[in-house]
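Pasting as-is:
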Amino acid sequence: MIRLVIKKLWRGHMISIRDYLVKSGIQSGGIEVTHDSKTMFLSPEILKAGTGETKQIPSKFNQNQKYNLIDFRWNPDDETQSV
């Protein structure tokens, strides 16, 4: 499982995760996201259903590397989520 800390929400209710982290999260059993001391677990099934609106953002550290952002609704401490 991958653990991420998100600093800000997009549009006040969405989190954006880079596509290569989503792929790694699917393979490793999910992603645990923390924002403002609240935690949310994204299972591999939820990760596969994410939506993406951005295309090919260049990395600020390696200009040859590009990534997409995958968006998920921020819903911490949801009882339907399992760890």
